[in-house]
Amino acid sequence: MKKTNRTYIGGQAVIQGVMMRGKSGMATVVRDDNGELHMEAKRIKSPEKRKKWMRIPFVRGIISFAVSLVDGMKALMRSSEVAITDEEEPSKLSRWMAEKWKVSLGDVVTGIATVLGVALAVVLFIYLPHLFTNLISDAAPVIGKQESIYYNLIEGGFRLVIFIVYILLTLLLPSMRETYRYHGAEHKTINCYEYGKELTVENVKKCSRLHDRCGTTFIFIVLIISILMFALVGWLIMGLGGLGDRVSGLAAKAILLLVKIAMLPLIAGVSYEVLKLLARFQSPFVFPFKAPGFLLQKLTTREPSDEMIECAIMAFEKTLDMDENPESAEKIFATETKLSKLLEMMKKSFAEKEIDEADAEWILSLSLDVPRSSLSEERVISRAECAKILEIYEERLTGRPLWYIIGDTSFYGLTFKVDERVLIPRPETEVLVRQAVSSLHSGDTMLDLCTGSGAIAVSVACNVAKDKRVSITAADISEDALALAQENAWKNNANVNFIKSDLFENIHGRFNLITANPPYVKSSEIATLPQDVREFEPHIALDGGVDGLDFYRRIAEKINRYLVRGGMCILEVGEDQAQEVIKIFQSVSRCDFAMVVKDLNGVERVVKIGF
Questions:
Q1: Is 448 helix (H, G, I), strand (E, B) or coil?
Q2: Which of 119, 403, 430, 521 is least surrounded by CB atoms within 10 angstroms?
């Protein structure tokens, strides 16, 4: 079958899952012991965005090999942390390490596994081939020592045989057979896409589990090229170069070993170009060169189950989406981790998305039920805690405001429910509330215009109404906002009368105090506001007209009809608007005095006007 869709996406099997890697992102999907799917997705630097010298043939192979190796190892280790779910709560050892040493048991196990893996690779592919070749060389002197091409070819042959035997031995382990099935799912999914078929389980099952760009084939090419190049270099250095005659045998071996290690990047670069070249052609004349790699893939891939294919499809589709959509969100596995590590990761992601980094601290503080000030104290976050934190974190990455996600926010010592129906109360508005509370006397009446969440009216009611017997009315044009404001009044046991009204439209009577935090953002500046404000908070509560002062003019025109003699109006204003608002009131209404109150940042935030 001819491939119609070429893709840069490749992948690998991980513990109980599949990792896919594209140009702009990589995604790992793991099915845990309970059958639940977990995804981790992160952005990576596209090859096109690398420096020019990093895209040069052979050099690009070295870079790609190194990056893929590191990312692959990280994905493998991360998958092991989320795949096993035997324990709902941390073990005694895990808790002890967290409390005593402030380290995660998973990090320790990962470190030990990495060291053992490197040690095993050295023994299998360096020490044993050298040992076996020396034994044969001693038994058959005609082969020669390290200066002989035959010696190096035999040593390389042993390396290849050990690799194949190693693969065969892994087939005896149930866990490795399962991993090879996930490997098959990865290949089948990529093939299905390249054949131009829809990515469904049924379509993927029909595709081949062999692929031109497989890592197994790449390793085979590396082994073959290394055999040839090591044999040539050994002969040149030890034979023609006469190194063995000029230095001791041990020193010569050490020098040759260092040279071979230094050649590994070059071998990887050459092998990468050979792999890409072979993958480009589907001709029968090229097949003999591909056949050895395909035969090895017959060992390292197995037919996957439907559930395994689902993992591969999900990982592929997420990677494809990240390649095509710069806004595609990153995702993180919920695993046991250090508080500092989690906080650093969240802050970095928020900074890249131009989200206030303080939100990361709020998420941890609220989720762990600890003060923000105590976040500097290291501790280990359990898997369950991490899942709760990441759920909020990932939704915040979409741009949705944190307090909409949490569902409520603190204002003037009270808790207010908030969602997309209303603006989120800001700390600077507390300046207005403080001024209102100090201005009211027993028996006074108060009107709060553009009440939104009811933050101003409810806060004043909770702080003065009972002691001073103040009657408070709140108005808003939005029925949805009024419904939420009423909930907040009930929640805080505040007695406020709510009226649907476009400013004074449905208001009757006169008041001692009128407060308002009206829309004051210039229409042209709405598009420049932070994403969470412009995309999620209601524009009706933001847009103040061409110059941002429309609502102040409307209030000034009619306020004399609704204020008693000696009454006062207290308004929140935008930055650099205070003096303009005062001029508006002085020109169209009967006012006796006006003054400005600054917020904690020194901004002229509140205007008080007496009548």
A1: strand
A2: 119
Decide if 311 contacts 305 (C-beta within 8 A). no
Cα 491 from Cα 470, distance rounded (Å): 19
Could you tell me whether strands 511-516 and 497-500 are parallel, antiparallel, or unpaired per DSSP bridges?
A: unpaired
Name the DSSP letter for residue 336: -
Name the residue with tokens 């493998």.
76
In the chain, where are the structural domains located? Answer: 10-72+90-324, 339-398, 419-610
pLDDT digits 0-9 by tens, 75-115: 887 888 888 765 545 556 555 665 556 566 556 666 677 67
Q: Locate tokens 């209601």: which residue? A: 538
Tell which residue, 497, 430, 499, has the closest CA to residue 465: 497
Element containing residue 455 per DSSP (H, E): helix 455-460
* Beta carbons of 350 and 400 less than 8 angstroms apart: no
Give the whole-angstrom CA distance, residue 383 versus residue 326: 29
Would you tell me how many other CB atoms lie within 10 Å of the CB of residue 566? Answer: 9
CA 242 – CA 240 distance, rounded (Å): 5
**Residue for token pair 């389980």:** 201
Per DSSP, 142 falls in state G
* Count of CA atoms in the C-beta half-sphere (13 A) of 121: 6
pLDDT of residue 105: 59
> What is the C-alpha separation between 471 and 178, in angstroms, rounded?
71
Count of positions (residues) in the chain: 611
- Looking at residue 378, its pLDDT comes to 86
- Kindly report the pTM of this predicted structure: 0.74
Q: What is the pLDDT of residues 461-509, one digit of tens each?
A: 999 856 778 999 999 999 999 999 999 999 999 999 999 999 999 999 9
Bridging pattern class, strands 17-21 and 593-598? unpaired
Name the phi and psi angles at 282, rounded to 5.
Answer: -110, 15
* The residue type at 300: T
- Distances from the Cα of 540 to the Cα of 201, 417, 515, 520, angstroms: 47, 19, 18, 10
Tokens of 372: 């923000």
Question: What phi, psi does 112 have (nearest 5°)?
Answer: -65, -45
- Nearby residues of 269 by Cβ (< 8 Å), 6 or more positions away: 58, 59, 60, 61, 62, 65
Q: Which CATH number fits domain 419-610: 3.30.1490.20, 3.40.50.300, 3.40.190.10, 3.40.50.150?
A: 3.40.50.150
Crossing angle of helices 105-122 and 59-83, in 10° steps, is 130
Q: Rounded distance, CA 597 to CA 438, Å?
A: 13
Both tokens of 548, joined, read 């941002």
- Assigned token pair, 279: 């993958």
